[in-house]
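Thread: Newbie trying to understand structure tokens

Hi all, I'm a second-year student working on a class project, and my supervisor (Dr. K.) asked me to get a predicted structure for one chain before our next meeting. I've only ever worked with sequences, so writing a 3D structure as a token string is new to me. If someone could post the tokens and maybe explain what I'm looking at, I'd be very grateful. Here's the chain:
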Amino acid sequence: IKSVAGEIQAEAQKRGIHGELRFCKEPIPLIKIDKKRFTEVMQNLLSNAIKYNRDKGKITVIVTRDASFVYIKVKDTGIGISRESQKGLFKKYYRAANAVKLTNEGTGLGLFIVKSYIQDWGGKITCRSSSEHGTVFTLSLPLKPKVIRTSNVSTSL
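---
Reply by user tm_fold:
Sure, no problem. This is what the structure looks like when written as tokens:
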């Protein structure tokens, strides 16, 4: 998470977007998931948080855990996603109407891929959003994933 945040920091600074990372005090064990795919997940969520944010907005990433799961929240102060658009959010080639108006960048595959990776690991992704408060994506990843994709690569959060 820290690595991806560092990679996109310059892009955020161009628009005056402030970022904050918050990690729980409890240690988070290594999780056996594909490091490359986890990086793709975080790149997608954080770059979307920049792309659809307001100038001088904010992005907050919060990482917590319990006995079974690690939870990652990616919050932004962006344009939000209507309830109607949230229904199609994780479908292949889907882009919310306000996102299309804002930019023609994007294929509508990013969140579809993110969800498929997370589900393959036995986790879930949810979205809560409003035009007044921005968007929060919450990932729950099991400390012991059900499926290990491609290589047995462990990654540390």
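A couple of things are worth pointing out once you decode it. The chain has a mean pLDDT of 86. The first strand starts at residue 18 and ends at 23. Feel free to ask follow-ups in this thread.
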